[in-house]
Amino acid sequence: MAKAKYLIIYEWLSEQIVKKKFLVGDKIPNESELATMFGVHRMTVRQAIDRLVDDHFLVRKRGKGTFLLSVQRPVLTRTLETISSYHDDIVKAGLLPRYKKLEGKIIPADVTLAAQLGLAVGANVVLLRRLMLANDVPLVLENSYLPAELFPGILGLSLEENLYNLMVKEYDMRLDYARTEIGAVLPTADERHLLKINEHCPCLWVEGLVYNKSGRTVEFARALCRGDKYRFVCSIGQYVCSNLHDEVPGKPLTR
Fold first, then answer.
1. Residue 39 belongs to a domain with what CATH number?
2. Is 209 found in the same domain as 189?
3. CB of 70 closer than 8 Å to CB of 101
4. Which residue, 213, 200, 196, 206, is CA-closest to 230?
5. What residues contact residue 165 under an 8 Å CB cut-off, 6+ apart?
6. Full DSSP string of 125-140
7. CA angle at residue 140 from 134 to 146, to 5 degrees?
8. 126 lies in which domain range?
9. Total domains, the chain
10. Average pLDDT over residues 171-184
């Protein structure tokens, strides 16, 4: 079966990116030029470019053209073996991290926040809502809740950087261990808008607690990660086989 024409153009453009014929920020040939080069209709070229835009290799700029955004896919991996930040994940992937602060304020702890942070109901809590981007592609939407008494003046600092580095450097905080839960969730319309995804894009919710060396909770975080761009990895110990001869009530053993 003959390969679809748009795939031929897609693969040619991908090859040019791999061979560094285009550099990040370069404008690629326009649809008319590529259509003439391959002897196809502009709609066929557009289909190939659409795929590279969806892969976040290319970006369209209205009235200017299409440009190379990145030389690799913005897919991140998070290890569950150590405390790490989304900033760390982005840097390890060889991508450019950028945080966009959406909201930063002091709020009173409700029953849930008080229980998670070990505070009295009504105690002051720092709410920091941020969007994490890799090569300008939004990947994670995170709400961080911090005991205000542990981080005086934090809202006056630059909050568009690695929050954990800020805790260590500015507040001499040792982050000792963490607990994380992960699940699947359907994003709201507002979340889809911020992450620039459609209703069919899967998402992961990540909820975690970070503790200092004294065992005090210093952060309660809720994050929404794009399931098409994020992977979680952990190392698991040896499998221990249960006793095959243990009787299961009401069920005979298979010999």
1. 1.10.10.10
2. yes
3. no
4. 206
5. 85, 87
6. EEEEEEEEEETTEEEE
7. 120
8. 76-233
9. 2
10. 91
